[in-house]
Amino acid sequence: MMIKTIEQVNEEVMELLLVADPSRGQVEGYLVNSTIFIYEDGDEIVGVIVLKQHDETYTEIMNVSVRESHRGRGIAKELMRKAVDYSRELDVNHVDIATANSSINQLALYQKSGFRITDINRNHFLNHYETPIWENGIQAKDQLVLTYEL
């Protein structure tokens, strides 16, 4: 099992990214000028994380996704640790990650990984996604921003 950087996103990686963010347009938009790490198990890509440096003060994890068959093995946590370590090398002050109010498992993972809720963008998913998103029986309406201070 290995984490490595890739330059181009193939369809296999795109499919993984779309599991976490169903808008291909949104995904394609934030892939530009981002660093992409994949997690490989043998010759299979089982996880991906996208990190974008917005300015000299912070980076943002734009997407993190793990194949359903490989969840619960700490892969997302390892990818997030890699993104935080890489951000530290960039000498930024903090790393942000945003998720929906309905993403209960992700909120737990992010907080267990040292991120703290720092902002709420009300109605983000209602205003930026054409199709309603439902998770855990809850409609995604608000975007919660979590921050890891370096």
TrEMBL record:
The keyword Transferase applies. Residues 1-136 form the N-acetyltransferase domain. Pfam families: Acetyltransf_1 (PF00583). CDD domains: NAT_SF. GO terms for molecular function: N-acetyltransferase activity. The keyword Transferase applies. It comes from the Bacteria. Keywords: Transferase. InterPro entries: Acyl_CoA_acyltransferase (IPR016181), GNAT_dom (IPR000182), NAT_camello-type (IPR050769). Coiled coil: none annotated. SUPFAM superfamilies: Acyl-CoA N-acyltransferases (Nat). This is Acetyltransferase (GNAT) family protein. The lineage of its organism: Bacteria, Bacillati, Bacillota, Bacilli, Bacillales.
